[in-house]
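User: Sequence for TSCOT protein below. Tokens please.
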Amino acid sequence: AAASSMVGMMAMRTWIEPVVASSQVASAFYDTALLLVVKNYYNQTNGTASSHAPEDAQQKAVSNFYIIYNLVLGLSPLVSAYGLSKLGDRIHRKIPICFPLLGYLGSKTLLLLLILLSWPIEVMYGAAALNGLMGGFTTLWAGIMALGSLGSSESRRSLRFIIIELVYGLAGFVGSMASGYLFVGFSDHYREGTVLVCCSIACYAFCLLYSILVLTVPKPGASCPAKAKSAEEVDSQLPAHTGAAAATGSSQPSGGSSSSLITPSKLIIILLFVAAILYDLAVVGAMNILPLFLLREPLSWNAVEIGHGNAAGYVIFITSFLGVFVFSRCLSDITMIMIGVVSFSIGILIMAFVQWTFLFYIARAVMLFALIPLPTIRSMLSKHVEGSSYGKVFVLLQLSLVIAGVVTSTVYNKIYQNTLNWYSSFCFILSFLVGCLSLLPLSFVAIKQRSTTGSLQILTE
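Assistant: Structure tokens for TSCOT protein:
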């Protein structure tokens, strides 16, 4: 009994979920605090200037701030992310987790000092740079996904990834629900946002201590299926990323030429990267504009309503988890991805016509499977690379998403500014079109897999 409890304790120490949960609560607190601090700052700045449209002036000022902030936050990890992930693959898996958490602590402390000492809002550009140079979310999430891959088998990896995303979403839900009340509730006694940012810093401190003192790296044995090992024995000269080509065509005989095995694997990896980038463009562009859209007419939400709206977005993590839990029993990964893309695209199209609060929640409800595509794409990619390359592949994907996201954020913010007085929901229609476009490479993957298996196995596995 003592031995089994000891094994259980050791297994629990491999759980990355406490880091995911605590860091996401911290992020939810910080995001709400930053948005409302920036809004209040430009309210005071624009209050002294005469303007025929003070709300539009504030919207443009906040939008311009986030253009620069997101550029710095997105591009600064390019300096360090790949190096940290490579160190994680070669030296220790904790490196791409602990370094970003240190950066988070430093950058959130700068926001606290900005509130307490009334520093100019431009200080947050430096905070974003500090966060990014320490790896940022790009490196942290790649490190988390690498640990998740090591601790799971191929057959259960999609479910493992969506469980991590579920924990992420539930924590975000709790953080978003609490953030509006914390911001408003303590604003009479303290400078607005102080308590919220302090709670965020405390959560990140817990993450760092847990990662250093408690977390252990899971044994990689579970993530090395026998068929991948046998494929290596048959042809040890194949490049690393082809070792799991059997994930898409395990019924093929192994006697084919090297090029016939390499090409499908490489092609599928490229198509999955393209699909992930296109889908992320659609999501990031829409989600960057959504907070600004909620602050102005016709909705004009306050801090509590924004917290509720963000919480409704996080419910998607639960519904997407349930979707993968059910669909993975009867559908293939590629089919689940397509269901998720369609779910988001229709939901964001409805969002383009939101005039009342209830319609916003209907649009969110239609997006119930919108989270399925990216973790499932990561799962498919992990089946085409070896365990020793998980960190590099995941960070390359994350960097691709970040670079595309930075460009998208800038373009969408400018489009939003130019369509503000004409049709402020135009960006949502654009996201709908880009989301539909991501179905093209996914269709090619489905066709490629069907031709490889030579049956309808692609639909049902």
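The longest helix spans residues 258-295.
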